[in-house]
């Protein structure tokens, strides 16, 4: 697939995801109006929409074509957004801006920022549970919800956030760093690919393979991030470089050096692509997307 | 049922609920150990365990006897606890103690307090989803999870918390106050009774009636709280009285006076008991429990 064709396709699919997301936004009315506003503001603040996008690509790759997927696509983006909203809070990263816009708490206050993150988390499950009314296979929807919760929770994303808070500023080793990368960044990608497969009827073995692919992609993506912080520049990256050095942050690059980091990205990507090619079903766009994530310059 | 028999029964059932809760506590090990500790600390800090208790009474009243209920019982207590953990945060009520023990954030830090509330919310759904592996009726478990999310979220408990934050300190009217009571206190009681019914196979009409009973009980419970704050004393209540007056809080009593508040509790209780008696199934203990909640002196 040529790069410009891919980019055009990607743009179309991102707007399609945003259209789906828009269907689930609550109306901003009632005594609890502020929470609806804060929730919608957070969800509409932009982003790559990577998780729902990948979920749908896997779903269609396995022949899925029902309405259930929309509920889970919206749900995973809500979960992802909730984690950003809480990460930005004064007691966490204390960020005033994200993607050039005021963070939820800095716009709505710290109490509403806390409640908006909570609201997004719960609304994600409320939305996901809506799929039960549109499916002839409640067992699959149940398994999708179980995976969503488990990859989000204490053994997934929240576990990773905890380890990050606990270990940052300490002399972390490679195993600890990989643990954080795998849970904090990787877990929701794993959920995206697994849920796409589960809802389309992928076998247990195929779902385990999807999990493994996503794990490698997530890790490669994160190490690529560490590399770009050292090698890129403000214009290309669109955000300040050398921030890890300034913050004395331990990264894959500070632990192993640039060359070994680049080699690791290559290994992880090759394994991900090999496993993807080994599946009995194909999706050229998904493959291209994964390659682009790993080799990206920004 | 004699009062001392009831109290003995209640004690037994509360320990049984706590035994179930204990089965779902995560092991405190791994790089994210602190979140496990904070989660377990919050869950084990005590409480009346009213929601899981009522859920199981309704379940057995409708003839339920399977293992699914345990997952949902633990889940609703986790949701309830998560709301307390976040309510206590400095940006919310800024409470250092709850039931005589340091609040989660004051023990583990503000960042871990925030993450622990998040973790409890998500772990609730992870736990609830475990019921899919133990049921022959995934549709019912799905409906139970949908109700759990919807009564917890922006149209339920979190909606009530938002309205409470927004309206407290302003000149609230009776409609606004009842909105907050119904959502903030009532919604999880509604979920408890409805889920007990749904999992045991109650009809839609019966589930709607359970919702209505719980709504009236929740409202009566809350107004009774307002009354006791004025009429009780420190020894009986076990916490300082006249706190609403000191905080210039608008309550049912400040809006309507003591006599009308007592009359409202009577009306709501009578309707709840009438509806409960109108069901084709009976549970004497549940009836006694509801009466006790409404007429309680502490």
TrEMBL record, chains A, B:
Q: What is its EC number?
A: 2.5.1.10
Parts forming coiled coils: none
Instruction: State the Gene Ontology BP annotations.
Output: terpenoid biosynthetic process
List the Pfam families hit by this protein, alphabetically.
polyprenyl_synt (PF00348)
Q: Name one GO molecular function term.
A: metal ion binding
Please give the cofactor(s) recorded in the UniProt entry for this protein: Mg(2+)
Catalysed reaction equations from the record: isopentenyl diphosphate + (2E)-geranyl diphosphate = (2E,6E)-farnesyl diphosphate + diphosphate
Q: Keyword annotations for this protein? A: Isoprene biosynthesis, Magnesium, Metal-binding, Transferase
Cellular-component GO terms for this entry: cytoplasm
* Family that this chain belongs to: Belongs to the FPP/GGPP synthase family.
Q: What is this protein called?
A: Farnesyl diphosphate synthase
Tell me the organism.
Answer: Cuneatibacter caecimuris
